[in-house]
Specification:
This protein starts with about 20 loop residues before the first helix and ends in an 8-residue tail after the last helix. The protein is elongated, with a radius of gyration of 17 Å. The protein is mainly alpha-helical and about 100 residues long. It has five helices and no strands.
Length: about 100
Amino acid sequence: KIKRMRLGKVKTVSPERVKRNLITEMLRQRIGDPRNFQPQRDFYEHTKIGQKRFWHLYNGEKNLTEPEYIALIREWNVTLEDAFGIRQVKIEGLE
């Protein structure tokens, strides 16, 4: 059908692709498997992050901003110590 209608490839925006996905790391620490997280409307209202923006962040297509990070920490009741630990860069070989 695509050939009959002479449609080309769909143009997509090239994602940023983050190096470390902080959302999945927080979810792993909070609930175990990130795939078990099912956000509801209340979640989006409390964090003030839109549904589309959240899924871009979750999939690692966009970078997380500071206000979004703080909103997620508050929503998921992550302690400040754990939040700082997640943000820390881990260097292999140094102990």
